[in-house]
């Protein structure tokens, strides 16, 4: 069930981003993750409702973003998938969500999505950096 929901979210996010002109807004590659973190923890107020280890935020209102992306990360989904899902949720939150639509917009939304995609689930076994013997490798993402 979770995999289907993730797949539908990714498809919806891809359709949303494809139809949103906004030539000045970058995708994952051109996003500013430092600005995204600043917005997540400050002005954008995402951290008031979402737990995210890298941001040092803990909340019980919205989904724990580390846990939400942990399973998908273990299954090999990459950072671009997480970016698309987060970007779609920022634009159009799920039904019955307490999150207001367009809490951040334009480039700021791309920056927040890129930041979350780069760190969510990093504390979940099998995601983020792992160490095996003397070699450190980065997990998919």
Give a structural overview:
The chain is mainly α. 45% of the residues lie in helices and 6% in strands. It is built from five helices and two strands. Strands 1-2 form a two-stranded antiparallel ribbon. A hairpin with a 2-residue loop joins β1 and β2. The longest helix has 18 residues.
Uncertain residue ranges: 3-8, 10-22, 129-141
Contiguous helical run count = 5
Strand content: 5-15%
Order of helices and strands: HHHHHEE
**Overall pLDDT metric:** 78
Distance between the termini: 22 Å
The count of β-strands is 2
Described by strand count, sense and barrel closure, the largest sheet is: 2 strands, antiparallel
State Rg.
15 Å
Strand order in the largest sheet: 1-2
Q: Which structural category do the helix and sheet elements fall into?
A: mainly alpha
Oligomer: single chain
State the shape: globular
Helix content: 40-55%
């Amino acid at each position: 069930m979770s995999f289907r929901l993730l797949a539908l979210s990714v498809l919806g996010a891809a359709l949303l981003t494809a139809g949103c002109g906004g030539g000045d807004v970058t995708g994952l590659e051109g996003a500013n993750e430092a600005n995204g973190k600043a917005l997540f923890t400050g002005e954008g107020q995402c951290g008031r409702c979402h737990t995210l280890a890298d941001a040092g935020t803990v909340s019980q209102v919205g989904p724990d973003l580390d846990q939400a992306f942990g399973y998908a990360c273990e299954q090999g989904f990459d950072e671009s998938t997480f970016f698309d899902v987060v970007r779609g949720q920022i634009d159009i939150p799920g039904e019955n969500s307490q999150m207001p639509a367009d809490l951040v917009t334009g480039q700021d939304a791309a920056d927040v999505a890129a930041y979350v995609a780069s760190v969510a689930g990093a504390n979940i076994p099998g995601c983020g950096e792992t160490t095996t013997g003397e070699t450190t490798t980065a997990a998919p993402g």
